[in-house]
Amino acid sequence: MGIKSVTAFFLVVSMCGGPLRALGTTANIKHIAMGRCFDYITLVNPSVWYDCEEIWRAFEEAVVGQASCDVAAEQYRRMFQAMPQTWACDRFLFWSKTKRLIQDYTAVARHFRTLEDTLVGFMFNDLVWCGRQEDADFDFRSCPKWSACLNHPVHSLWRQASKNFAELACGNITVLLNGSIESAFNRNSMFGSVELDNLNPRRVNFVNIKVVTNVEGPFVESCSEGSVADLIRILQSRGFRWTCSDNDQILMTLQCLRKPEHPSCRPCADSLSAGRSAVRLADFGAAKTNAVSEK
């Protein structure tokens, strides 16, 4: 990228994205990340053991003393070497623009594992960090936004973590996309730009795409139209087998639990009410039978 191109890039970002600087490193980041690490190895996944102190030292080494826009993904190599991880096949779940729904979904479909379920995801999810050149600490006053530079320290970590997660994927994997937005499959997203390119068709049997719209709409994309069709074409060109479903019933039910009053949720609410009524009738019948037998 030439000097003129770089200048144009930052000019566009500054005009379209607002200020290039945001809030600084998350306060008490070391205590938060270390606490999460110890929680992970003692409560979340006690079958594995990691040296949390060593992981933190490698993380600091990658960020502290570096310019806030000069931390490449490769600089986290020693940290990732200190936290190797594998998952059983058929459990990998990828997502894009469906963060809140994915949390509900994995709470119900507990066999799925997302990037946030790995140790690095658990430790650093929703945290912000950056350093300053020739400074022995994090910058707690101001960090650049992700869009401000190519080697943002937060973006670089997630880019490498996403690459590692995708390379491990095997068996039947699932991809959850938001059908209520344009470009449900976005080539510039972490899934579109990193994870998709690192899936191995020799390890992955099926890519199961689930497109879900918000209960209130809008209904923008589906398996047969919009950017999802582009994703399917890419998968086919690379030799992946795939399936695609619109508005998976479990995903729609989870949304209706948050908005039961919405008109589109009435059939779901009626079926749930009918189910509860059936349970009550069954309980009543069992109680009546017991009462007769006791006589």
Features:
alpha/beta; 295 residues; 11 helices; 4-stranded parallel β-sheet; disordered C terminus; globular
Can you give a write-up of this model?
The protein has 11 helices and 6 strands. It is of the alpha/beta class and 295 residues long. The strands form 2 sheets. The protein has a 4-stranded parallel beta sheet. Strands 1-3 form a two-stranded antiparallel sheet. α9 (227-237) links the parallel β5 (204-212) and β6 (241-246). It is globular and about 60 Å long.
Number of helices: 11
What order do the SSEs take from the amino end to the carboxyl end, as H and E?
A: HEHHHEHHEHEHEHEHH
Low-confidence stretches: 1-18, 277-295
Specify the overall morphology: globular
* Biggest sheet descriptor: 4 strands, parallel
Determine the strand fraction and express it as a percent band: 5-15%
For the largest beta sheet, what order do the strands appear in spatially? 2-4-5-6
- Terminal CA distance reads 89 Å
- Overall radius of gyration: 23 Å
Question: What percentage of residues falls in helices of 4 or more residues?
Answer: 40-55%
- Per DSSP E runs of 2 or more residues, the count of β-strands stands at 6
Overall pLDDT score: 86
User: In terms of structural class, how would the helical and strand content be classed?
Assistant: alpha/beta
